[in-house]
Amino acid sequence: MRHRPRGQNIIRFDSVGLRYGLGPEVLQDVSFALPSGSFHFLTGASGAGKSSLLRLMYLGLRPTRGRVVVFDRDLAATKRYELPALRRRIGVVFQDFRLLDHLSAVDNVALPLRVRGVRESDIHKHVPELLGWVGLTEQLNSKPSTLSGGQKQRVAIARAVIGRPDLLLADEPTGNVDDTIAMRLLHLFEELNKLGTTIVIATHNQALVDRFAHHPRLHIEHGLVTSPQ
Prior knowledge:
alpha/beta; 10 strands; 6-stranded mixed beta sheet; 4-stranded antiparallel beta sheet; 7 helices
């Protein structure tokens, strides 16, 4: 995939607020910009609003107020039928994995490539290779119902990164794996970042963040976001 030049903003939030229904604002006056090719941790306590912020980033929500710009497109001015094409440029790792139960691990990971029309010969080469790298060589043909939570998580991560998206958003991607696998996954994200993908990883694992302290953070507390320094 062709990436934007490093340094240009891939995401911008201007005075964004978000509330669900008539409840209080989950996010308040959020303003920040993330340059293309950057890598950020998104931190905050459970329930602080990390998942809501990610949903705005992957165009799963529209803000209650303010302006969200992704790939130079103002979300408020973007038609609903235009959203799928934009979302195909974003890889997302959800906390609930969202794997397709009737597909094997290989076919779940291959799905984004098949949507893009990638040749089957390339799929058969690269998908098993990536699944092997995340420690799932023995589970290539396994269905999600037979996998553990940590194995499902690794399949979901492989699916999110296989197409080298412009933007990767990961919600607690190391929450169900041990420290060794967690470090391996973080190094995978770093390698993807070196190829030009902008990375945002939501986590409350402070020890993990401390081990990668060279990456700036977004931090959420009481609906307010502290932007990268």
